[in-house]
Write a structure and sequence with these properties.
With 454 residues, the chain is an alpha+beta fold. The chain has five helices and 16 strands. The radius of gyration is 23 Å and the shape is globular. The two termini are 24 Å apart. The relative contact order is 0.11.
């Protein structure tokens, strides 16, 4: 299949080059279609997650096609003859077990490659000793049963070590789902799914965002990594519109608290409740060059472990990304509502022995401007950025409860991301933490990190 794959890839390469000359309104759609075809050959290819504009997506497509062409040549008998060494691709090489799936008859079995991402951090709060942490080691495994039935999974080891009875790490299944590809505009997905909310939850690999740690708003207001068992539909409606809609296991209200909001309520697929399944929907628009908009909705009941109350949790978020020349911008707003929060606090006080002071409303937002400081002709990238975050896990309290000012928080991040390769990121940032309390003061800190994916 080597020569067949080589010819097909060369067609993709020629089409990708032709896209540079196109100025019609369908350019975005053509790029998206090429990205879809390349992902059939290499599901780890994630150009759609890149915050850069259309030109950067085309550059990544060209680099990936060159990389796969090099692998196809290695499969062909003609490649046994001596040949000049290929140039180093912009993206890191990936060697799939087989990449013939898109060209076999339906029903034929094809194996897809292993991918992954890793990151290590150094964190030091002012006046405190610094800490080193190999934060994540994540492997992604895929398999194609046919050109219409595909499997993808993500297995993560956090903090380098897992020991029974000690909080030294976590081994977690973050994704494991089957895709049944029916039509571009309508497909079916089932398994362990990431909740389609915000910018980071579904695309949280270190090179895809600035800053050593994930944004605070997308940690405490939209809890990352938020996942559960479920099923649903996905599709590309054309003209830049895409969607994902799932029914999923619900949150567990016994894990809600004042400081982390609904984050502790993630069941993550373990003893989840499907009695009142939650509904999650995300809509995205990329029909305007260099602009990406998204909005997410989530609604579900969370009191399945409580006898007296079964309150509903609603989450709404809106996000945007924009690039112009060397400048990037991204921003996000998120709101969370918890119904019958006063009854929930009373039930949790009886069950747990203390009042968790859960709010009826939580809110957060951030905006992040960035600039690419190096000329585009270079294969390396230096991104200078600043991010302001405002988040309050006690934005509004139920009647009879007083908000605690230490949970009305904000932060400024100033930092840089250096990419010697598109898939490798060396990161630095300094964070200025603030809150509304006159007694409990947060600490500023410095963070260093390195992350990569392949």
């Amino acid at each position: 299949m080597g020569p067949v794959l080589s010819r097909a890839l060369r067609v993709l390469c020629v089409a990708g080059a032709a896209l540079w000359a196109q100025t019609t309104p369908t350019l975005e759609q053509r790029v998206a279609e090429l990205e879809r075809k390349v992902r059939l050959l290499d599901p780890s290819f994630a150009a759609e997650a890149a915050p850069a504009g259309l030109e950067e997506r085309i550059r990544l497509l060209e680099a990936k096609v060159e990389e796969l062409l090099g692998h196809s040549a290695a499969l062909s008998p003609a490649a046994q003859a001596p040949a000049p060494a290929p140039q180093t691709p912009v993206t890191a090489p990936l060697q799939p077990v087989s990449v013939e799936g898109d060209y076999q008859a339906a029903g034929a079995e094809t194996r897809l490659p292993v991918a992954g991402y890793m990151e290590a951090h150094y964190n030091k709060a002012r006046g405190q000793p610094g800490q080193l942490d190999f934060h994540r080691f994540t492997l992604l495994f895929g398999h194609s049963f046919s050109d219409r039935i595909k499997f993808w999974s993500e297995l993560e080891l956090e903090h380098a070590l897992v020991e029974g009875g000690e909080e030294k790490g976590e081994l977690a299944l973050e994704q494991a789902y089957l895709d049944f590809l029916i039509a571009p505009y309508f497909n079916f997905r089932a398994g362990m799914l990431l909740t389609p909310a915000g910018l980071i939850n579904e695309r949280h690999e270190s090179p895809s965002f600035n800053g050593v740690e994930r944004p605070l708003v997308e940690t405490f207001i939209i809890p990352s990594t938020w996942r559960d068992l479920g099923m649903g539909v996905t599709g590309d409606l054309g003209r830049g519109f895409r969607y994902r809609g799932y029914v999923m296991g619900s949150l567990d209200a016994t894990g809600f608290n004042a400081g982390e909001g609904i984050r502790g309520g993630r069941s993550s697929g373990f003893e989840s409740s499907f009695r009142n399944p939650a509904k999650a929907l995300r809509l995205e628009y990329t029909g305007v060059r260099r602009l990406a908009l998204g909005t997410s909705f989530y609604s579900g009941h969370a009191g399945f472990r409580l006898q007296t109350v079964n309150q509903r949790v609603d989450v709404f978020s809106f996000d945007s990304r924009f690039s112009r020349g060397p400048f990037d911008f991204r921003g996000l707003f998120a709101d969370v509502w918890v119904s019958r929060a006063a009854e929930l606090n009373q039930a949790l006080r009886r069950q747990l022995g203390f009042n968790p002071n859960v709010a009826s409303r939580m809110r957060g937002y951030y905006f992040e401007p960035a600039v690419h400081a190096l000329p585009r002709r270079l294969r390396t990238d230096l991104i200078l950025f600043a991010r302001y975050e405002k988040y309050n896990t006690q934005q509004k309290m139920p009647e009879g409860y007083i908000p605690l000012p230490q949970f009305d928080r904000s932060a400024w991040f100033i930092g840089a991301t250096y990419k010697p390769n598109a898939d490798v990121a060396l990161k630095f940032d300094y964070v200025f933490n603030r809150n509304a309390s006159r007694v409990v003061k947060p600490l500023d800190g410095i963070n260093l990190g390195i992350g990569w994916w392949f």
